[in-house]
Design goal:
The protein has about 260 residues and is an all-alpha fold. The protein has 12 helices and no strands. The C terminus is likely disordered.
């Protein structure tokens, strides 16, 4: 064999090895997505799944890649302007109810978000695919809804026997602060699902909590119905932000006593 032929074989072999290595890195060995891309895409959901697999990165990548493959092509159905306003009014009503009935409000928030998700084309809240499908499209705001769903004892709530909303029987009493955080954080997914363009918002931060206690507005221009509702409410109660601010101090002693029982 001539020297030229040997050199050609070596060059071809090097190219093949390099191509295989490139494809392996790009594909990540799991459904065509590398671990870095999956972690960037799923954010906190990646960490949650990794913890569920006891730190097994390969299993985590396989599960999340399968979710992308299965639900990535799902195109959420748009909501009409009337539906968006109606859902906004429902959210404002349950948020106002939180001051007097926090557990009921969280249960209603859980049910409302599940209903909107189903209307937009995601698997229903009673489906084992519900959270998997949502995680592909709204991974950064899903955690708050998952927290509310767990406290409400909804279908698929891990490790929860009952619920705040009465889904599944008695459950240990949750502190008002836990319920408050769940409602504030769940609003992130609610807003994602009711946005005009359907794009997810960023994850809820501590700086968002003050804004999250204000009434939801689906548009920059408020509708006449929303104005009328807000005016009527304001005439009978203190502003919602003040009631939320006073909430922890007003109920904490009773909650702590309850937890010691």
């Amino acid at each position: 064999m001539s020297t030229g032929a040997v050199v050609a074989i070596i060059v071809v072999a090097v190219i093949v090895v390099a191509l295989i290595a490139f494809l392996a890195v790009r594909g990540g060995g799991a459904g065509g997505m590398s671990g870095a891309r999956l972690k960037h895409r799923f954010g906190p959901e990646y960490d949650r799944v990794l913890d569920g697999h006891d730190g097994d990165v390969k299993a985590t990548r396989a599960e999340l890649s399968e979710r992308v493959k299965r639900y990535g092509g799902l195109e959420p159905r748009p909501l009409s302007e009337r539906d968006r306003e109606r859902y906004g009014a429902e959210w404002n009503a349950l948020q106002a109810k939180f001051v007097d009935e926090p557990a009921t409000a969280v249960g209603q928030a859980d049910a409302l978000i599940g209903r909107i998700a189903a209307e937009r084309g995601f698997p229903g809240a009673d489906s084992p695919e519900h959270f998997d499908a949502l995680s592909v499209h709204h991974p950064h705001s899903l955690g708050g809804y998952r927290q509310a769903h767990t406290l409400a004892g909804g279908p698929g709530a891990s490790g929860v026997a009952g619920g705040a909303s009465g889904h599944g029987g008695p459950q240990k009493r949750q502190s008002t602060e836990e319920l408050r955080k769940a409602l504030v954080n769940a609003r992130g997914l609610f807003e994602d699902l009711t946005r005009d363009d359907g794009r997810p918002t960023r994850a809820t931060t501590a700086d968002d909590e003050a804004a999250a206690t204000e009434p939801y507005e689906p548009d920059a221009d408020e509708s006449a119905d929303t104005d009328a509702t807000d005016t009527k409410t304001a005439g009978h109660r203190a502003p919602l932000s003040e009631r939320f601010a006073a909430l922890t101090g007003g109920r904490r002693d009773r909650t702590d006593d309850d937890e010691r029982l």
